[in-house]
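S1.2 Input.
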Amino acid sequence: MRKRRTTKEEDDLIEQIAERASTISKADRITVQMDLTACIEGGCSLRLQDMLNANKANLLHDLAGINKNINHVTYKLDNNFWPRFAK
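S1.3 Output.
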C-alpha cells in the first residue's frame, strides 16, 4: 500500500542510482528503479543524493538489502532491514 508517490526529483535520482548500480555490479537497472520507488512509496524515505554519491560497498549493501526485503504487496521492508541511507 502506497503511503506517498515519489517526486520528479526523486525519480531522476533513482534513475541515476540505477544506472550507476548497473555499471558497478550485475544489478538490473529496472529492478533497482522499481525497488527504490516501492521502498519510498511504502514509507521509507531515502537520502537519494547521498546514496548516489556513496561508495560501492554502502550503495550495494542498501540495494541488495532493499531487493531482498521489500514486500511487493505492501511496499514495506520486512525482516527488520533498515537501509543505511534511510532518513
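S1.4 Remarks. The two ends are 20 Å apart (CA to CA).
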